[in-house]
Amino acid sequence: MDLRQLEVFINLAESLNYSKTAENLHLSQSAVCRIIQRIESEVGVTLFYRNHREVQLTKNGKLQQ
């Protein structure tokens, strides 16, 4: 995982909105989606629940203390 991917993950985790993340980072929405899919593939877990109305972090996507 590189720094750009981490930046996208953090921004999406904070905003829970693909459009806002894309706008904040000057990327297309599809680029954000591809980056998140790559991260999930790399780590082998689903990090976000997605549907047409909302995005939420999964238990694996949340930081545990």
TrEMBL record:
This protein's record includes keyword DNA-binding: yes
All residue ranges annotated as the HTH lysR-type domain in the record: 1-58
Record-level Gene Ontology MF annotations: DNA binding
Alphabetical list of Pfam families matching this protein: HTH_1
Keyword annotations of the record: DNA-binding, Transcription, Transcription regulation
InterPro entries per record: HTH-type_LysR_regulators (IPR050950), LysR_HTH_N (IPR000847), WH-like_DNA-bd_sf (IPR036388), WH_DNA-bd_sf (IPR036390)
Record flagged with keyword Lipid biosynthesis: no
Protein name: LysR family transcriptional regulator
Species the sequence originates in: Lactobacillus delbrueckii subsp. lactis
